[in-house]
Amino acid sequence: MIPLALLIFIFLGVTLAGSAMVVALTLGYTTAQPLIIAAAAGFLVAIPASWVAAKRINNAKRG
């Protein structure tokens, strides 16, 4: 399950970090610090999300 979670994390981490940056830019935060914080927050949220997604895929695959 760990290889699957890592593969999902690669895609999900970039997606959530980018989405968080778009939200920060939309809210008017245009300096580096809020953008870095938003990207890091999205990246950190992707860790448990990828683990849950990998678990659900493995459970669905087993039956």
From TrEMBL:
Q: Which UniProt keywords apply?
A: Membrane, Transmembrane, Transmembrane helix
Q: Which residues cross the membrane?
A: 34-54
Q: Quote the protein name from its UniProt record.
A: CTP synthetase
Q: Which organism is it from?
A: Jhaorihella thermophila
